[in-house]
Design brief:
By secondary structure, the protein is an alpha/beta fold. It has two domains: 185 residues, Isopropylmalate Dehydrogenase; 137 residues, Isopropylmalate Dehydrogenase (3-Layer(aba) Sandwich). The protein is 43% helix and 16% strand. It has a ten-stranded mixed β-sheet with strand order 2-1-3-12-11-4-5-10-8-9, with helices on both faces. The chain has a two-stranded antiparallel ribbon with strand order 6-7. A hairpin with a 2-residue loop joins strand 6 and strand 7. Helix 7 runs parallel beside helix 8. It is globular. The protein binds nicotinamide-adenine-dinucleotide. Nicotinamide-adenine-dinucleotide (NAD) binds next to loops.
Length: 352
């Protein structure tokens, strides 16, 4: 099974190296036969190939079974026409990764901002407010004059139905409860379509469904996080809400995610490239490691290989023990372990 690694920018190379050590340990321990290969992306490929998202990398992604992608410092990329397309959004579009699944959980013994929380945010990943990737050709953001900027949000029945299916399937496996989040009181057509689709799919799954507007939801998830389980929402709301949930669970370094479609899956931490701490060996690689665990779980389900799912479960358990130990944490959680040492410690626990 081929896993392609793209290290990314900022803290990307550090956290991806730590995650890779864990994935290799899992492959040995559970006989997974994973073959790891590398492709350039982001600032690295901009320097060597003149683009942040080379065609060859896209091709290699398509040929791989799974992809590990580090965060990208997209804010400083040159304009797309000068070689700086957003390779994160580009990957989601090129591989049609419509479901961004972002769990956040308070773990026993690990410092968090709330007492109890175990949520999974299922975020639509290909359309919505993301004007740089929501069109078939061209971009949904433009300036008719230097003083007028227009951005278009796209919501389709197909996009809503497929993300609703992903969320309902997950809710069925978990508590049977689904919360949808939108802003249908204002965005009556776009969020109205989203809500209609989620209701239609959820009624087929016989789930308990509630719904909140995104503004109120940001308060409610802080006030009573234990009330929520699976949350389904559109692209931008999901991006914002998942950072909030990760922070509530202890910090951005704890928020994993997969970007999944029908045929491909990318492990990618929910956070960004954290330029403020890059190159200092202090970034928390937990989110990246857990994202890799989620990728193994996805591969196990897709290829009916239970050993991959077993490895994923073990990675989660090992992270839990590692974070419960106050000497086993990185500085963002009050610990002293470096990024690399954290990865090695988790890999060692996994091997034992
Ligand atoms: P960020 O998530 O990179 O950082 C926000 C804060 O969280 C910073 O203080 C950072 O140090 C901290 N942080 C993030 N990850 C951490 C970790 N693993 N361990 C410890 N602390 C961590 O958000 P930003 O600063 O707004 O964005 C930086 C760059 O990342 C921008 O170029 C942005 O466009 C990009 N970005 C990329 C992705 C992606 O590739 N998926 C996602 C979000 C932002």
């Amino acid at each position: 099974m081929k896993i392609l690694v793209c290290k990314g920018d900022g803290i990307g190379p550090e956290i991806v190296a730590a995650a890779e050590a864990v994935v290799k340990a899992a492959s040995r321990r559970f006989n997974l036969g994973l073959e790891i290969d590398y492709a350039e992306i982001g600032l690295e490929s901009l320097k060597s190939q003149g683009t942040t998202f080379p065609d060859a990398t896209i091709q290699r992604m398509k040929e791989s079974d799974g992809i590990i992608l580090g965060p990208l410092h997209t804010a400083i990329y040159p304009p797309p026409e000068k070689g700086g397309p957003n390779a994160s959004g580009g990957t989601r579009k090129a591989l049609d990764l419509y479901a961004n699944v972002r769990p956040s959980r308070v773990r026993p013994g690990c410092p968090a901002h709330v007492k109890k929380m175990d949520v999974v945010i299922v975020r639509e990943n290909t359309e919505g407010f993301y004007a740089d990737r929501n069109m078939f050709a061209g971009r949904g953001e433009f300036m008719p004059t230097p003083d007028v900027a227009i951005s278009m949000r796209k919501v389709t029945r197909e996009g809503c139905m497929r993300i609703a299916e992903s969320a309902c399937e997950l809710a069925k496996q978990r508590s049977g409860k689904l919360t949808m989040v939108h802003k249908g009181n204002v965005m009556k057509m776009t969020d109205g379509l989203f809500a209609d689709c989620v209701n239609e799919v959820a009624s087929r799954y016989k789930l308990e469904v509630d719904e909140y507007f995104i503004d109120a939801m940001t308060a409610l998830i802080v006030r009573k996080p234990e009330f929520f389980d699976v949350i389904v929402t559109t692209n931008m709301y999901g991006d914002i809400l998942s950072d909030l949930a990760a922070e509530l669970s202890g910090g951005l370094g704890l928020g994993p995610s997969i970007n999944a479609g029908a045929d491909h899956c990318v492990a990618q931490a929910a956070h960004g490239s954290a330029p403020d701490i890059a190159g200092r060996n202090i970034a928390n690689p937990t989110a990246m490691i857990l994202s890799c665990g989620m990728l193994l779980d996805w591969l196990g389900r897709r290829h009916k290989r239970p050993e991959l799912q077993e490895a994923a479960k073990r990675i989660d358990e090992v992270i839990e023990s590692q974070l419960a130990d106050k000497n086993g944490r990185t500085p963002d959680l009050g610990g002293k372990l470096g990024t690399g040492a954290f990865g090695e410690a988790v890999a060692k626990r996994l091997a034992g």
